[in-house]
Amino acid sequence: MNLSTRSPGSAGSGISPIWVVAAGLAIIFGGLLIGSFAPAILPPQASAESRQIDALFRFMLAIGGSIFLLVQGMLVYSVIRFRAKPGDASDGAPIHGNTTLEFVWTIIPAIIVTVLALYSVSVWNSTHSIKPNEQTVGAVGARYAWTFNYQLDARALPSGVTLDQLEPNIRAAVENGGLTLSSTQLHTWVNQPVAVSMNTQDVNHAFWIPGMRVKQDLLAGRTTEIRFTPIEAGVYRIVCAELCGSGHGNMAGSVDVNGNLVGAWLIVHESEDAFRSEFFDPLARAALFPPEDPVERGRQILASGVYPCASCHVVDDLGWNGAVGPNLNNVGSRAATRVAGESAEEYLRISIRMPGAYLVPGYNNLMPQFNAEPGQPNYMPDDDLDAIIAYLLTLKTS
Amino acid sequence: MATISVPLIGGRAVEGKRFGISDILRWTVDHKVIGIQYMLTASFFFIVGGALAMLIRWELLTPTLDIMADGQQYNQLFSIHGTVMIFLWIVPMMAGFGNYLLPLMLGAKDMAFPWLNAFAFWLIPPAGILMLMGWFVGQAEAGWTSYPPLSTLYSLDGQTLWAMSLHLLGLSSILGAVNFIVTIKNMRPVGMGYFQMPLFVWAILATSIIILMATPFLAGALTLLILDRVVGTQFFNPAQGGDVLLWQNVFWFYSHPAVYIMVLPAFGILSEVLSVHARKPIFGYRAIALSSLAIALVGFTVWAHHMFTSLTPELRIPFMITSMIIAVPTGIKVFSWLGTLFMGKIRFTSAMLFGLGFLSMFVIGGISGVMLASVPYNIHVHDTYFVVSHLHFVLYGGSVFGIYAGLYHWFPKISGRMLDERLGRLHFIVTYISFFFTFFPQHILGMSGMPRRVAVYAPEYQSLNVVVSIASFILGISTFILIWNVIVSLRAGKRASANPWRALTLEWATSSPPPVTNFIGDPVPYRNPYGYGSESANAYLNALESAYGPSEHPSPDAPKAIKPAPAAGD
Ligand SMILES: [Cu+2]
To answer: B438-479, pLDDT tens digit by residue?
Structure first.
């Protein structure tokens, strides 16, 4: 019976309990140490949600870190301790299993995942629940830009503005449901719960603010919601996280060469007053008292970001730096000569209403068509178009 | 004392011949040739998919567009990279191992349905060609997940070819699975009950059950997609009453189980490799065997964890719970493998190194998987590089390392030649380190805010991306060490005896390579495929050595004066 294939006494069986306890402690402290790296990896905590989610992650990282150390430790230990010595052709110990051990390593992971599941449920319930006094904002995703819509009704008029100062048609709009103010940026203020309700004009997108730790897909044909409460003033990049086509990577906030924010950013103001005075009131005033001058109105419309031109075109005056379409810096001087027989004004109108009609040499037919009828995708009323054209015609460089 | 049964020996006159290129290109019903055909085809697509990955990483060296003309071209790259690696590399490669090994491990002469087997294989080359043809008509650009409406209303014709190609591959996979299940059920040798089967056979059984239950759903989804694209139906178009979530649900109902289709066979390979090269019985045989079945079943209830940011919020928690449960059987396997190593006599063969590498890297993918199951955390990292990292730890650190371990382990059986162990160790070290630095930093990229599937990214992520790209280039090059090793060893490698690793499973009880009929007569399996360390196992292995020539590590008490095995084909 005594074959050279066995030497159980020589291997492993005599590990002292002190070492086992020491290794166990090392693994647990190691896990806690690994867990403590969590804040260094995640973006700074800037929302109420991020505090809870980061704590959850840190907990998981500590447990995961311990398991990692346990497994790698066992592996390295076995590899060193139980390596076959040169010339030793014998077999290892004929151990086929151990019911107690197997029970233990079934039950302990089961307990761990139960704890994780319960913890996750509690974090989830608190982070996605509806909060009192939410600021509601609408978001529209379109390839490849974001638009945020704010409601301006009679209760939200800028200070010093009363209903009877308004033009009758604007006053009527404010009283019947309100005006929609648009921006490429999402503005709010510290400690204000925000609820964003989202629609897409084309494919699915996903709205993600890493600094807030929240993400939700925009689904064609549905309205989806996302909520968060910022706790630190600052600017936070908004990112599209669901593949939406060729410009998917551009569908995120960026910074231009001059350090200006371009595209989709979350701006968290210090206070509601700051939000109103720095962002909302000027936007509201502009909408309530539209400039008489169509050029100025056109500039205002384009600057507001209601239309997603910035992601494709360069206009220095507006800080646009999109690279998909032609540079529009002096479109005013060349529009008249683009197509024989079309006036500059007529050419620009066609360029926007039917971009496919005349392609600028060297560019593909990638520009969306902006339609005149409400209800059509990319709706652009004639009023807006006229003003935009008036403004574009002034874009001339010497 | 148990009786020692040695398979009938003596048929070496008709011993296996080496296969030439012409055999590989021919229609044949020999499961061994078909297995090799699968492996070679899959390896070709591994190189294609790898080349695409290199282009992706090259593009990502800088935050702006460099080598790609536009985002669309980039999207086509990673769409085909993902699809090829999954459907034309890992899945058929595993089918190749299954085909080659299953009848041998069962002591059978072939699969249950040899003709069907060949047919299933020959669906793959046309499918692969169809997929690559997409580049002539506007390649698919909606990712391997191809969510509508991007894949229906906004993609070019390559998307249709993509769907047709997957249809063929799905069919191939279903036919293969039927064949495996019937073979396992009916062709086990006398004396081999289900619980005497090698764990690789268990893994193939569990995988085949998944394929049979899940793949028809992929076929259904693809059919709707093709109809929407070609016939003008509106299944996925909300403007006409369709629903974009329909695709996501049905697609993941297949594609989550597909993860197990790719990883369970690797688990099976790992069980064989660890036990043989640690010279120790597998620890907790039944737990490993049954946990595969548990994973197969629970795997059908977790699909929507891929949809935590699109699924109705109320449904997220139930899917989180099932996804956490599935960690338990996976954990059981990992601990059982560690138990197998404990008190073994570990030999650092190349196969074993990749087995150990598998264990240590797969664990990282397992841990990040449990993190991803947690809804609140998933919401933050979904569709980011964290997920890219996780899936590569599972599918590269797991499946591909498993494939490598299996190649080093069974290459001698398949080819009759040993692979060069020095090159093998070099391959392992370079692959292991560059793998880690390619994928580990991606966790950090994702958590700190970099989404996946973008060609342009915020400049603050560049430094880590450069690290990742450089590591990935080394990883890409490391593959050629293996290819070189295979070429050199095929020409001039050391002749392999029947059982170079002194393994107990039946595929080693016949010459390397095996004769056309696999065995001469009906072999009798040793009663426990993992009975290492017992007197009777030792005697059985010694008997094999004296009949077929010495192993790489001959037992000291094996009969002396044995001649080397006559070389195959000489
Ligand atoms: Cu998008």
So the answer is: 999 999 999 999 999 999 999 999 999 999 999 999 999 999
The chain-wide mean pLDDT, for chain B, equals: 91
Domain A300-392 CATH (choose: 3.20.20.70, 3.40.630.30, 3.40.50.2000, 1.10.760.10): 1.10.760.10
pLDDT (0 to 100) of residue A143? 85
Q: Are B176 and B95 contacting, i.e. CB atoms less than 8 angstroms apart?
A: yes
Q: Is A67 in the B-facing interface, judged by CB distances under 8 Å?
A: yes
pLDDT of residue B318: 93
Q: Is the Cβ pair B367, A121 closer than 8 Å?
A: no
* CA-closest candidate to residue A201, choices A324, A365, A378, A372: A378
The Å distance, Cα A326 to ligand 1 centre, comes to 22
Cβ atoms of B200 and B265 within 8 Å: the answer is: yes
Cα maximum dimension of chain B? 81
pTM above 0.90, yes or no: no
List of chain A residues whose C-beta atoms are within 8 Å of the C-beta of residue B244: 204, 219-221
Bond prior to B149 in cis (omega within 30° of 0):
yes
Domain residue ranges of chain A, discontinuous segments joined by +: 18-77+104-129, 135-289, 300-392
* Confidence bin at B3 (pLDDT 50/70/90): very low
**Tokens representing residue B360 in the block:** 């240590």
Return the pLDDT at A154.
Answer: 86
Mutate which of A96, A111, A202 to disrupt the B interface (most B C-beta within 10 Å)?
A96
Domain A135-289 has CATH 2.60.40.420: yes
For residue A218, the CA-to-ligand 1 centroid distance in Å is 9
pLDDT of residue B552: 81
Cα–Cα dist B19/B455, whole Å: 44
B5 touches A: beta carbon within 8 Å: no
